[in-house]
UniProtKB/TrEMBL annotation:
<keyword id="KW-0812">Transmembrane</keyword>
<feature type="domain" description="Cardiolipin synthase N-terminal">
    <location>
        <begin position="12"/>
        <end position="54"/>
    </location>
</feature>
<keyword id="KW-1003">Cell membrane</keyword>
<keyword id="KW-1133">Transmembrane helix</keyword>
<dbReference type="Pfam" id="PF13396">
    <property type="entry name" value="PLDc_N"/>
</dbReference>
<feature type="transmembrane region" description="Helical">
    <location>
        <begin position="33"/>
        <end position="52"/>
    </location>
</feature>
<dbReference type="InterPro" id="IPR027379">
    <property type="entry name" value="CLS_N"/>
</dbReference>
<protein>
    <recommendedName>
        <fullName>Cardiolipin synthase N-terminal domain-containing protein</fullName>
    </recommendedName>
</protein>
<dbReference type="GO" id="GO:0005886">
    <property type="term" value="C:plasma membrane"/>
</dbReference>
<keyword id="KW-0472">Membrane</keyword>
Amino acid sequence: MEYGIFGLIILVLDIYAIYQTLTSPASTVAKIVWTLAILILPVLGFIAWLVAGPRGGTSAHV
């Protein structure tokens, strides 16, 4: 039962990551690469997206 819940959580997080990627201002090629990475490697792709994925237009300048 725990694996089913874990899988559902990963699915929801991956869908969120793909949505954020597709709605980002990144180039089309970057969107395709990130989406494929998330789909092919769900857990590692999501973690990589969190660390280095395309960001929105706002950034903090210090």
